Amino acid sequence: MPRRSRVAPSDDESSTPPTSSSPNVMNQGRLDIWFEGHEDRIQTFLIEINRKQIILPKVIRMSRLRAKNFGNLEQHLKAQKLKTFLELSGKVYPDLVKVFYANLKFSNGILKSSVKGVEMEITRQAWKDVAGLRQRGVQVRKGETSAVDEFNKVQ
Amino acid sequence: MGRLRVEERLLGMVVTKIIMPRGSNHATLNEGDLVVMYCIQNGVMLDWTYTIHDHMMKAKRLTDFKLPYVVLISKFIEHFGVDVEGELEESTSLLNHVSTLNMHRMEFTKVGNT
What we know:
heterodimer; A: alpha+beta; two-stranded antiparallel ribbon; 13% strand; B: 5 helices
C-alpha cells in the first residue's frame, strides 16, 4: 500500500482525502480491516460519515502569542490548561479519523470508539495524557449557558 | 483600547478555528463561542473535555457538519496503538498556524487605529 503525503492548502478550510472522496472506489478489503468486518459499522461509515469533509486543523503557538505582545491572552489560555491542546500538531490520518467518527459513541460519560479492532475509551487519563485536559470545571455547550451566571447578567 | 479589540478578535479565532471549529469561512461568533470567550477572559474554569465531546457528537450527528479535531483524534489513534502503517497520512504544516497566517493582518488594523 503506497503511503501518501500531502500538504494541506492554506486558504481552503477543509480537505477531502483523495482515497475516500467516493464510496465507489472504496476497497472492500480496507473497509474490512478498518471495521473488523462489522457490516453494520461499514454501512454507517459509507452512508453517514464518508462523504463528510474534514476540517483543516489550525495550530497556535503560545510562545508566538507572547512574542507578539499577546501575553495576556496567553496567560488566560494557559490558566484554562489549554496549552497542549491548542499546540497539537504533526501527523494526521484522515481515513482513520473517519473510521473513529463512524464508530464513535458516548455512554456513561465516556467517549468510545474503535479503529481497526482497537477499542478506544477516552477516559479521564487519556484526555490528560494526549491533550493535557482535565475533566473538571464548568460544563458549557451551545444553547446551555445557565451554568455561567455572570454571562447571562451581561446579556 | 485598540489592543483589547485585537486580542478579542484573536481569541475569537482560537475559539472558532481550534476549540469549536465549524469549518466555515465566516468567522461569525455564535452564543456558544461568546460564552466560552467570556469564561476564558474572566477565569471561569471550563471542562474542555465536555465542550469537545459535545462538538464531536454534533459533527457526527448533523448532516451539514464537517468533522473537527483531526489532529486530536489522530493523537488518540496513536495513543491507543492503532496500526497506522500504510494508511493515508498528512501533516500539519506552518500554513496551519493561526499566528503566522493572521497576525500581521490584525496588526495592520491596530496601526490604522493609532
